Amino acid sequence: MKLQFSKYQGTGNDFILIDNRKSEWSSLTRAQIAKLCDRRFGIGADGLILLNHHRDADFEMKNYNSDGGECSMCGNGARSLVQFAHHLGIRDRGIAVKKPYQFAAIDGAHEAYFQDDKIHLKMQDVKEVRETPVGFFLNTGSPHLVTHRLNLMTYNVVEEGRKLRTSPMFMPGGVNVNFVESYGDKIFVRTYERGVEDETLSCGTGNIASALTAFPHPMGKHRVEVETRGGKLFVEFKKVSDEHYEEIWLIGPALKTFDGFVEI
């Protein structure tokens, strides 16, 4: 059976996207998804996302890690899926640019809109930030540890990230690990992602976690520029308290790489 797919990337974080509004591919197995995401024996991607029909929203996002397991919220994947929905013509294109998309994800409802060739994605509020012996722990749709390092470009993110990802203090679920280096009011972030079990070129929810905790922000609204190995993003938010953040937006590009067919 032939599967039609599209490949998209958001600052180098790449995804296999499938139009599943007719529920034709809802029964993909974990092994099949892992094979499709394999970079040597499949299409290759950090994850696979189904665009599903939703009764009350423009669409539903169902996302999986490259190991085939269903995963928590993915910011770059969501931005890519919004671009995919726009290319599919799910909404009148004029209305889609002027009025935000509304979609459902594993962590609840989201909205997103286009401006200046970037997708602005609204995330859920963060209501808890916990300081640990190795950095700040918070959930921005996915659980993240944020830890600071110097000379980050040459740092062994995979080796150190793997150790922290499976640290007993974050089990049983484990954690995504974000290594951050600050440059004035900007940050450089490298992320080891659980489920991928490797470094990815960018991680949307990780970039948000890093932006929220990188500096001792005063109360009020902020915009942080985030550099990743895959490109530049911006995170906007309102700090209500040291543990409470609202109006969180992930802003950056999402582009189609190619379309294709694969035999399942």
Written account of the structure:
By secondary structure, the chain is an alpha+beta fold. The chain folds into two domains: about 130 residues, Diaminopimelate Epimerase, Chain A, domain 1, CATH 3.10.310.10; about 120 residues, Roll (Diaminopimelate Epimerase, Chain A, domain 1). Helix content is about 20%, strand content about 45%. It contains five helices and 17 strands. A hairpin with a 2-residue loop joins strand 6 and strand 7. The longest helix is centred in the first third of the chain and has 14 residues. The chain starts with a strand and ends with a strand.
Topology:
Layout lengths: L1 E9 L2 E7 L10 H8 L9 E6 L6 E7 L9 H14 L4 H6 L2 E5 L2 E8 L2 E5 L6 E4 L2 E5 L3 E6 L8 H9 L10 E8 L2 E8 L4 E3 L3 H10 L6 E9 L2 E11 L2 E9 L2 E9 L1
Parallel strand pairs: 2-3, 4-5, 10-11, 12-14
Antiparallel strand pairs: 1-2, 1-17, 3-4, 5-6, 6-7, 7-16, 8-9, 9-10, 11-12, 12-13, 14-15, 15-16
At a glance:
This protein is of the alpha+beta class and 264 residues long. Helix content is 18%, strand content 45%. The protein has a 17-stranded mixed beta sheet that branches.
